[in-house]
Structures are given as C-alpha cells and as structure tokens.
Amino acid sequence: MSPRTVYAGYQFKYAQLEDTAGNSPFNACQYALGFGAHVAADYAGFYPGGYLGNGHSPNGATWRNWISLWPFMTVVDAYVARNWTMSLPHLPTSPLSSAGAAFIADATAYSGKQGQQFPVLSPSEVLNCTTTWSETVNRNVDVAGNYLACVHAP
Length: 154
Prior knowledge:
By secondary structure, this protein is mostly helical. It has one domain (3-151). It contains 5 helices and no strands. The longest helix has 29 residues, at 123-151. The protein is globular.
C-alpha cells in the first residue's frame, strides 16, 4: 500500500479524534474523507491497466508517472468544470484556510507519532503548497475556457 494511502487513514483517524466540524468552518472529517477518496482514485487510476496507468504499479517510484500527468489531469478537470457538470467548488481554486492548513500539519504530526514515516509539515508549508496548487488550477480553468471559446468561435 502506498504511503499516501496509509497517511489518508491516519488523517481521517485524527479528524475523528479532533472532530472540529462543530467548532470551525473547516470540516476536518469531510476534508479527510475527500483526501482519502482522491488517494484511492489515484491508486486505482495509476494501477497497470487503470485509466491513467502506463504499466507501473502505484507502489515504488511511480510518482514520476503521476507528476508527469499533473498538467494533463488538471486541464481535464478544468475543462470538465468549465464545460460540463463539475462545479468549480469541487476544484481547489483557492488555498486552504489557516484552520485547514493547521489540521493537515497536525495530522502529519499525528501519523508520525503513530510510527509512520510520512513527513511532518508545518501550517506554512501546507499553505504554500495549496497556494501554488490553486494558482495552477485557476490558470488551467482559464485555459480551458479559452480553448472552448476558440473551438466554438463562429
């Protein structure tokens, strides 16, 4: 099982322990469920014969496979969001809140205390990552919109 899959389980367990749903606008349990579903989809998608697979298994050095496909995957997501049924709130078009970044940082520390080797992140590292990622997603949404305008131009 991939380290991200294992971490997703610890993240959800930590969310259940903290149960911040009633005390914060950031719902840690919902976020952790979404993250776990995302990781499971990646695991299935990159498996040999999967919809994004190219013969590599999801274990080991396959990160090169999904990193090389990130631009493609985000453009597909953006295109679907712009043109079909996916709504923009389903895409990470803005950075996580400070409460969300703190949750992820705390969850990485929790997984480390449970003996896992996943790196422990600070809230600022999480915010930097989600800021960069949301900027990428927004750029790709704009590209998808421009593509659609060109395709359907008179």
